[in-house]
Structures are given as C-alpha cells and as structure tokens.
Amino acid sequence: MSRFKRQRQRTVPALNVASLPDLIFTVLFFFMIVTHMRDVDPKVQYNVPEGTELTKEVNKSGLVYLFIGKPVDAQGRVIADETRIQMGNRYVTVDEIGAEIEKERNRMSEDDRQRLTVSIRADRDTEMGLINDVKQALRKAGALNINYSATKEMRKD
C-alpha cells in the first residue's frame, strides 16, 4: 500500500511590486503632459451670459483674456461692489488697456501678433457703457479682433 504525504498548508504568494514604481511614474508623466495650467487667475467674479449662436475658439495662440466683474479675494468672496477690469494678473483702467495690449503684443511672436484676439469675459450684469468704453480703447490700440465669452443657453421647452 502506498503512503500519501500530507500536504502542508499552502500560503498565498507575496504580491510582486517590482513594477509598481514604473507604473506610478508613467501615470505621473501622463498627467503632467495632459494637464493644462492656467496662465491667468481671475481676480474678478463673472457669470458669463448665455447665447444661442456660439462658436468655439480653435486658435489659442494670440489670445488675450480681459475679465470684467466684481473683485474677489483668494477665497472667491466679493470684496467690493464696483466693477473692475483685469488683464493678465493685474487690474487695469480703461485708459491703461492700450498700453497693456502693446505689452502683450511685444511678448508674442510675429505670427501671433497678426492673429491677436482679445477675449472679453464680462459679467452678465456689467453695464454696457463700460463694455463700449473697453471696445473703444481696444480699437484705439489696434486690437480689432474681439470675441465675447458665453455659455450655451439651456432651452426650457
């Protein structure tokens, strides 16, 4: 008669984590490449108006953002009631817009200078007189391509 050996209780083998650092660095590099960092942090609160006939801006080079709204602090709380204009990372007046456009134009390449577009992101409650003053200042500065940011209007059918 043959004898059977009694099997020892088997344990689950340890997990091989040798390739884990490679995987972590691959995911890290993926997010570093795909993530778009903002150039300008808005210092004003703005709720863009709604529109029906909207097109998406394809060419982002040569684009300068102009924010119009109520100033906010670092936590996003409104700190004043007057409407402010932000260009880049600082507040400007209507009279300073021409000089700021010229600074932005000097930073750009020659191709981007030809395609300079100012994107106005104004609060929906901004007075139209201020927007007209901004448009006149942009016209004097030679920035003739202007677009307005808006959100898609939700139909209530």
Which secondary structure elements does this structure contain, and how are they paired or packed?
Layout: H1 20-34, E1 44-45, E2 50-51, E3 63-71, E4 84-87, E5 90-92, H2 97-107, H3 110-114, E6 117-122, H4 128-140, E7 145-148, E8 151-152
Parallel strand pairs: 2-8, 3-6, 6-7
Antiparallel strand pairs: 1-3, 3-4, 4-5
How many whole angstroms does the radius of gyration measure?
A: 27 Å
Number of strands: 8
The general outline is elongated
Task: Report the helical percentage.
Answer: 25-40%
Q: The biggest beta sheet, please?
A: 6 strands, mixed
- Percentage of residues in DSSP E strands: 15-25%
Question: Pairing-aware structural class of the strands and helices?
Answer: alpha/beta
- Low-confidence spans: pLDDT under 50, at least 5 residues? none
Q: What does the average pLDDT come to?
A: 84
Q: Given the structure, what is the number of helices?
A: 4
- The run of helices and strands is HEEEEEHHEHEE
Distance between the termini: 87 Å
Overall description:
- The chain is an alpha/beta fold and about 160 residues long.
- It contains four helices and eight strands, in the order H-E-E-E-E-E-H-H-E-H-E-E.
- Strands 1, 3, 4, 5, 6 and 7 form a six-stranded mixed β-sheet that branches. A two-stranded parallel ribbon has the order 2-8.
- Strand 4 and strand 5 form a beta hairpin.
- The longest helix has 15 residues.
- It is elongated and about 105 Å long.
- The termini are far apart.
- The mean pLDDT is about 85.
